[in-house]
Amino acid sequence: MYYKSKSYQAAYLLIIAFLAALTILCILPMIHVLAVSFSGKAPSSGNLVFLWPKEFTVDAYQKTFGNERFIRSLLISIERSALGVSLGMTITLLTAYPLSKSKSSFGRQSVYMWFFVITMLFNGGLVPTYIVIQKLHLLNSIWALILPMLVNVWNIILMLNFFRGIPKDLEEAALIDGAGQLRTLFYVYLPVSLPSIVTLSLFTLVTHWNAWFDGLIYLSNPDRWPLATLLQNIIVDLNFASLALNPASLGDISDRTVKAAQIFIGALPVLVVYPFLQKFFVKGVVIGAVKE
Amino acid sequence: MRLERHVRSARTTWIFDAMLLPAVFLTLLFAYLPILGLVSAFQDYKPWLGFFRSPWVGLDHFRYIFEREDGPQVIWNTLAISGMKIVAGLAAPLFFALLLNEVRQMWFKRTIQTIVYLPHFLSWVIFSGILLDILSVNGIVNKALVTLFHIKPIAFLSDGTLFRFIVVVSDVWKEFGFGTIVFLAALAGVNPALYEAAEIDGASRWRQTLYITVPSIMPIVVVLLTLSLGNVLNANFDQIFNMYSPIVYDKGDIIDTFVYRIGILNGELSFGAAMGMFKSVVGLILILSAYRAALKWANYRIF
User: Fold this and answer.
1) Coiled coil located at which positions (chain A) (predicted)?
2) Spans of all domains in chain B
3) Chains A and B: how many Cβ contacts under 8 Å?
4) A276 has a chain B CB within 8 A of its CB
5) Interface residue A22 vs chain B (CB under 8 A)
6) Hey, which of A59, B33, B37, B252 would disulfide with B244, CB 3.0 to 4.6 Å?
């Protein structure tokens, strides 16, 4: 066997060491920022914090959660995600079910399919979309963040591929028992595909939680921004002071811990959902890419 | 009789149309209406005049893309940045997957996978926040460099050439883990009999990799490469927008960020629409040719 040879064993050790080093390098910056968020002001502005908090404190978090604007945006994000996920999944199920039918039972299937797939290949772009949202009087409404994202063609394709894997006998049995198509979808297909539904819901949740740009262009009043947009504004926009090649401009750096805390809070829901996602996304990605 | 009636009722498909209605309505509204809105690219569109009364200007805006100084520059930047991303974004996961595939300790493999997949799910806002913090002049990276090599702090994000480099590296950092999934799946699909035969012939692991593993996953590499060429005009708005600043516009500004600044912020709606349409049309042509090529060379179908 090849892995008994001396030279392979040496190479194997090198591989393990390399992989470990690269992986650690990959998360070090995140741990660093996390450590900064729990550190006192002085050590973090002096950049003395590395991977472990110095002068441990939760001041930055208290300050963040004491901020009325932050809380308001957090609630808006929760509202947006809840509406976006529930309505979006309803649409996904209702759309994927008929599209999963074969041509013999639903003749117009391929017409509808193309109708949706074309939108993946070609779109009007930023400005015309903006004009449409404006003409529909959706500017400054939370629906501007939800309605355009409800039809997610990629999710629909994943869902319909899953539906196609469900034995046809189940559907036939339900229809013979006198259930209509809607009833079949909700009482036969839905319970069977619960794991897929949960996965797609989590993906949709992450998408809604992370979305920041639509808030920036469609909502002119910062009081109505979801958290991602607010964070974008705080973390990214105002940071140029610390970017300039001028070590004297330390004015902005004193709230480095607060920014670090906000980065971490912004990422937290994703971090919580991630372990559940991880179980499933490998499957989803492979369905989309490697097909036999 | 009874059975036949039910089968026939299953054939009445109006219920399917009804189920599709909400999605069709929303798609018409938010995907097809904006496509119609592209007429504004051929007009001097004014919001108060609308699509019907705004004056027509033909291809003026499209000509202006190439006449103004920053137009071709922005297109070139987009191609340069996403070209580098395509190469690095394919090579890094491939290399990592090949190494990871050697690992036999499952717990070790799983731990590594869990960690490297994670950044894919963080938004670019969060990720840029981390990057801006560690790459700032007072940040940890500069501190390390200064202590180790006794050099002056480097302004990573205010120098155009460095900026492009950082954009590519950070994109690889965020996405390489996720990219390995496809390759790992392809590697798992290689016929084990091939390795057994090579083993009997006395081939070393290196030779097995070179003559079995690499040729086996070449088709998927070709597919991914062709498909990503179809996406070459997307250099990632989210990333650039959250990392760039006016200092690096000359090398870091891409089509999407340009459209946002000129079209939305400056209110030159028609010009923004024209630039966006240029991108969409070229993108469509590229994607369709990429699919054709993938079908021809690797017999790959999406649907």
Assistant:
1) none
2) 60-298
3) 301
4) no
5) yes
6) B252
